[in-house]
């Protein structure tokens, strides 16, 4: 253990502890640490603190303090200041730091030695923009940070305090692009659907911010040099990302910078002056009629059977299949109403299921014919659910009684189950690989191949814009054709040529 010598020194009416030790190379090192104690009447207390500090002092650990994250350093300073602050002052400091300051810097991943005046100005600007902080609160936080950082200076962990020239109430510094887009993202959380926000978060937090953060570009830098945005797009393309993914990033950057333009922080939107990648032509693998017929045979009894049938015949989206409720089935009038959905969103690393009594778009809310084969399947599922409920008793989950697609224990099938299980099923049965969503495309392609108009397909699939239908499906190359769209009905459940199959009517 390192032998640490020490003595007290008076400086500006306060006691300073002067510690001395030899490093691993035998060189004498010294460190000055403030006691925070006035000279008058505190000699014994200062001597006691000196002895305690000498005993606990670890030069190696102390030399690493400047590498601590700002949030950890603030907590450490607060603990070490408890002896030197009046109880009321300590309580206020602990409350402010714990509620506001520390949580903010925890997200910034800044070390104490890397903390700059710009970082502190950004903190105060952020708090001012929240419209919750009063002038007095801003001044209080400034005082607390000043004390904490001066403590670091007194202990030689910092050469100068970065807060010295920062005015908490004055906005006179350039805004970093990464800080602005992060704050914009927080604002959007209450303004868009959670699924949309999750998409924003994935792009901004995991892709855009990590690229721009080390570059320290301000909003003004971005405005003056649109090439910085162009460089980012090229960087992502060089990494192998698709043009469509980069276009998604472009949409996020443009929306953010458009907001900066609207509130007067920049005079023009630099994203409008860059060339975004050309959108890639949609390509989709589909199943022919024969391949669907084979799929319907082997899928029987599999947990994904219902999902596959509804996607391949009705062209339902994954969210629409999982969201189907019994009240959407009109057995008397032979109709299925698509009006409920279940989607997933990953926000802050947590995946959440969101059940909604609405569809993706207004056009997605549609009514389709209930053909006998599907009616038979639904009646069978209803009886099985009733039986499972009796058998399982109290173990049966009663949270999803109104949903059609549940497991034997009553739990609703997850949306991601279909997209994850389906490829594995195809591999196990040595069938051509397609995505689960491609079953929807297969449905559309069979309809189109048999002369069903694009307008009718649009209504069947629930597209809001016929151009979506046209762009996705009209280019498909059909190697084989079926006699009519009724082939899908006839193939369901190995029912080719069934007498109860009804022709499609739109």
Would you summarize the structure shown here?
By secondary structure, the chain is mainly α. The protein is elongated. It contains 20 helices and 8 strands.
Radius of gyration in whole Å, from Cα? Answer: 33 Å
Shape: elongated
Question: Distance N terminus to C terminus?
Answer: 86 Å
**Counting H and I runs of at least 4 residues, what is the number of helices?**
20
User: What class, by secondary structure content?
Assistant: mainly alpha
Number of strands: 8
Uncertain regions spanning at least 5 consecutive residues? 474-487, 493-506
- What percent strand? 5-15%
Assigned CATH architecture of the domain at 289-494: Orthogonal Bundle
Question: In order across it, which strands form the biggest sheet?
Answer: 1-2-3
CATH level-4 homologous superfamily of the domain at 289-494: Intergrase catalytic core
Question: Which percent range fits the helix content?
Answer: 40-55%
H/E series: EEEHHHHHHHHHHHHHHEEEEEHHHHHH
**Mean pLDDT across residues:** 84
Provide the fold topology.
Blueprint: E1 5-11, E2 14-22, E3 28-38, H1 43-56, H2 59-63, H3 70-81, H4 87-106, H5 117-129, H6 135-154, H7 177-188, H8 194-212, H9 219-224, H10 227-238, H11 243-262, H12 289-298, H13 305-313, H14 318-323, E4 329-330, E5 335-338, E6 341-347, E7 350-356, E8 366-369, H15 372-392, H16 415-428, H17 438-449, H18 454-461, H19 466-473, H20 486-491
Antiparallel strand pairs: 1-2, 2-3, 4-5, 5-8, 6-7
Report on the architecture of this protein:
This protein is mainly alpha-helical and 506 residues long. Among the domains are: 1-46, no CATH class; 177-273, Tyrosine recombinase, N-terminal domain (DNA polymerase, domain 1); 289-494, Orthogonal Bundle (hpI Integrase, Chain A). 49% of the residues lie in helices and 10% in strands. It has helices at residues 43-56, 59-63, 70-81, 87-106, 117-129, 135-154, 177-188, 194-212, 219-224, 227-238, 243-262, 289-298, 305-313, 318-323, 372-392, 415-428, 438-449, 454-461, 466-473, 486-491, and strands at 5-11, 14-22, 28-38, 329-330, 335-338, 341-347, 350-356, 366-369. Strand 4 and strand 5 (335-338) form a beta hairpin. Helix 8 (194-212) packs across helix 11. It is elongated. The relative contact order is 0.06.
């Amino acid at each position: 253990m390192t032998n640490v010598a020490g003595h007290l020194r008076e400086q500006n009416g306060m006691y300073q502890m002067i510690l001395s030790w030899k490093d691993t190379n035998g060189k004498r090192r010294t460190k000055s640490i403030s006691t925070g104690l006035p000279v008058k009447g505190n000699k014994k207390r200062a001597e006691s603190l000196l002895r305690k500090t000498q005993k606990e002092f670890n030069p190696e650990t102390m030399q690493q303090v400047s590498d601590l994250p700002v949030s950890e350093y603030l907590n450490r300073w607060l603990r070490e200041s408890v002896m030197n602050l009046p109880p009321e002052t300590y309580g206020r400091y602990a409350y402010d730091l714990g509620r506001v300051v520390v949580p903010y810097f925890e997200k910034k991943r800044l070390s104490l030695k890397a903390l700059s005046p710009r970082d502190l100005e950004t903190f105060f600007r952020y708090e001012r923009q929240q419209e919750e902080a009063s002038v007095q609160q801003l001044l209080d936080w400034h005082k607390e940070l000043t004390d904490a950082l001066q403590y670091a200076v007194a202990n030689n962990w910092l050469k100068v305090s970065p807060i010295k020239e920062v005015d908490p109430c004055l906005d006179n510094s350039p805004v970093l692009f990464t800080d602005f887009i992060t704050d914009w993202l927080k604002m959007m959380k209450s303004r868009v659907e959670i699924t949309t926000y999750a998409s924003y978060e994935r792009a901004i937090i995991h892709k855009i911010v990590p690229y721009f953060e080390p570059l320290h570009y301000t909003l003004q830098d971005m405005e003056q040099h649109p090439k910085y945005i162009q460089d980012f797009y090229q960087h992502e393309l060089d990494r192998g990302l698709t043009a469509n993914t980069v276009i998604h990033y472009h949409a996020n950057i443009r929306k953010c910078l458009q907001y900066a333009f609207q509130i007067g922080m920049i005079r023009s939107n630099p994203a409008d002056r860059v060339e975004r990648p050309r959108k890639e032509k949609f390509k989709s693998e589909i199943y022919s009629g024969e391949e669907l017929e084979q799929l319907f045979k082997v899928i029987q009894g599999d947990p994904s059977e219902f999902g596959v049938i509804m996607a391949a015949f009705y062209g339902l989206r994954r969210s629409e299949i999982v969201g189907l409720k019994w009240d959407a089935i009109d057995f008397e009038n032979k109709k299925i109403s698509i009006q409920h959905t279940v989607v997933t969103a990953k926000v802050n690393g947590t995946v959440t299921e969101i059940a909604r009594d609405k569809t993706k778009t207004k056009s997605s809310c549609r009514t389709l014919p209930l053909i006998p084969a599907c009616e038979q399947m639904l009646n069978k599922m209803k009886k099985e659910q009733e039986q499972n409920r009796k058998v399982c008793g109290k173990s049966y989950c009663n949270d999803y009684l109104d949903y059609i697609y549940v497991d034997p224990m009553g739990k609703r099938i997850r949306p991601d189950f279909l997209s994850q299980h389906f490829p594995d099923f195809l591999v196990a049965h040595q069938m051509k690989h397609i995505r689960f969503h491609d079953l929807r495309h297969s449905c559309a392609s069979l309809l189109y191949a048999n002369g069903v108009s694009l307008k009718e397909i649009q209504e069947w699939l629930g597209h809001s814009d016929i151009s979506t239908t046209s762009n996705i499906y009209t280019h498909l190359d059909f190697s084989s054709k079926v006699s009519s769209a009724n082939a899908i009905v006839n193939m369901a459940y190995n029912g080719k040529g069934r007498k109860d199959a009804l022709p499609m009517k739109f």
